[in-house]
């Protein structure tokens, strides 16, 4: 079963980071050259073993010195492109997500193999993660739990407001300034308790949303009060999808949990070998998961009634219904005319879901992804005779007089042009990366008719009039 | 905590000077809409005003840049900078252009060179665009290709951003050597400061006149808006004519300025003299709007109170009729918006059967109004018959 979100192993072998954050660069750098090996079958070996193999097997290319600059720029292009999402099949995705985030706050998290320690590193990335999660999934909800001293404790309620969770995490780290001290990791974690608690948290969530559990587990043990296999079975029954991010080593029980709750797919279990890796694994889970065929049947599409309130400005401050604070302006529920001060939320008076239509629109690029652009050969360039990027007007390198047989690097185009398969316009690598990672639009398709092959086909001299028609 | 970070130094160093700024103007050139406006606000007058605005932008900082795009009926065309076609034509046009510019230059030698180049390019390209081919009647009524124009403008702005700050972008995408998490954070924050307007700032001004609604380009438009948000590029909208919901949402989401400009007495059908009088006042008003509303760049906007109202129309267009709704049904699979009551049983976008919750189909049952207990006439009668008690 091909399942786009769960291909993180492949993602990493190609240094993929389809989140926009540039921070993922470290990954791409360290796995330099592995983009070339992306086609090699991802084996069942552990990630660190594969990374080792990749570096060992890196072919020793004897470069022609005259082409050095060219080769370097090719390689740079290939690396840039490697981060573009490979999979552009429009899967049905779980856009409305219900996510339980389980943190390991056991004493294993005090290990100093990440600086200053695993626990601090995890907390630092979590804030970023939560913001990114809500950026990507504005109508989803999260709750944060922690595994602390054998127990599982809830830190924040299931809610769609990122600040609730970030405050909870900050409180965990810094204390609340009064009587509550910052929590230091203690004891051992219990996966069973965490799963049972997650199951309880997600029990009442509606069928049309996903039920996901993301566990960040630093420990290599789980200290369970009962039979965890029974818990796993009940999680499968409740259609939870558990993914686990381990730190530094794999555990058999985690593999089992992930594979059983994900329909046999083990790729939801990632092991971070360092802090950059941890961040990448976290960020990879921000894009909504593809639905499986079986789930699709159960989760019949629901019609959700939502209100799209407009923002108003008032001369005199009035109380908002959500916090009871005096505000001058806010959003008026279209059904009951109650004023709330922020979106998205549920109308406190009539329980209507109030959102901005832009929140819905933010998820559209997951549903209608932009197709990958193709590398353009010199032959094709001679046919189309493009000289400039359609997007940014950057000049392309000219057509070489004879085929110089430049060694082609996988992932980059020999002519530095990339063609959109539907509108046939040519773009530069920067626009390719920008359009696939940030814009999710093809500037060519959106702006007029597809590019035509110039009338004077194949000729290298050509008259300018024919070219005018082509542009 | 970030104060001890080494990356902060860079931004401090550069913040003393005003950052160069890129102004991208997207001009809606639908001939039909402009011909409707021709009596009160002709395109030529608007163009003149825009050129003054552009010149002012160029004059305020020598490193400022300008790009102008036309969203025409069936294509998007660059007005400035002029894209070049093919090698052969490029050479010929260059030589031609060179002599031409030299000729012109002799004539208007008092004009600042960049002003002249832009003016010439824009007028030449616009003339080419408007005279090249006459679009069909139904094409004229189609909405302007705003999503495409925005996409191109953003791609261009992105390139300029990369050019202006190659170090950050390079290390972000193709650095060398191992980078630890701390360095990584440094890179991210450096890029953030770059994008938050210390290195190079950019903004996009959309001059919109067409009446046609943009709901057919909704997804493309929204994707562009979010990309602009990510790049920290405000989308300013100058709407000539009535309001459009989507453009207002776009400018609100990117914290841009949205103003509508009504040409004075747009139904000017008086004498010639009256028409010319209104013409000059119209352009003067337009110039003032442009200068006061849109002239400040992102860096300056932090210090100013920007015009525009806080009231924003956030209603959405339903996918079934294109009707603007404030209360609608949303398919849980593909998030398409439909107006209520629903006319179909399965979602037309994703074909999944829609299960309509009972709360939509059935009307809420109000509490049965408790009937007022009528007092028994007999009792009442007796009471009243008892008469008012009188103090003894």
Please supply descriptive tags for the structure shown above:
heterodimer; A: 471 residues; alpha/beta; Rossmann fold; 4 domains; six-stranded mixed sheet; three-stranded mixed sheet; 17 strands; 15% strand; disordered N terminus; disordered C terminus; B: 392 residues; 2 domains; two-stranded antiparallel ribbon; 48% helix; 13% strand; elongated
Summarize the structure.
The complex is a heterodimer of chains A (471) and B (392). Chain A has 471 residues and is an alpha/beta fold. Chain A has helices at 8-13, 25-30, 47-56, 68-82, 118-136, 162-174, 191-202, 228-237, 252-261, 275-284, 293-298, 357-361, 364-367, 378-384, 429-439, 443-446, 464-470, and strands spanning 97-104, 141-148, 151-159, 210-217, 241-247, 269-272, 301-307, 311-312, 318-319, 326-327, 330-332, 339-340, 345-346, 353-354, 374-375, 418-419, 426-427.
Task: Set down the secondary structure blueprint.
The complex is a heterodimer of chains A (about 475) and B (about 400).
Chain A: H1 8-13, H2 25-30, H3 47-56, H4 68-82, E1 97-104, H5 118-136, E2 141-148, E3 151-159, H6 162-174, H7 191-202, E4 210-217, H8 228-237, E5 241-247, H9 252-261, E6 269-272, H10 275-284, H11 293-298, E7 301-307, E8 311-312, E9 318-319, E10 326-327, E11 330-332, E12 339-340, E13 345-346, E14 353-354, H12 357-361, H13 364-367, E15 374-375, H14 378-384, E16 418-419, E17 426-427, H15 429-439, H16 443-446, H17 464-470
Chain B: H1 8-14, E1 21-28, H2 31-37, H3 43-60, E2 65-71, E3 76-80, H4 87-107, H5 113-132, H6 137-141, H7 146-164, H8 166-174, H9 181-198, E4 201-208, H10 218-231, E5 235-240, H11 245-253, E6 258-261, H12 272-294, H13 298-301, E7 316-317, E8 324-325, E9 327-331, E10 337-339, E11 354-355, H14 358-361, H15 377-386
Parallel strand pairs in B: 1-2, 1-4, 4-5, 5-6
Antiparallel strand pairs in B: 2-3, 7-8, 9-10
Helix pairs in contact in B: 1-9, 3-5, 3-12, 7-8, 7-10, 8-9, 10-11
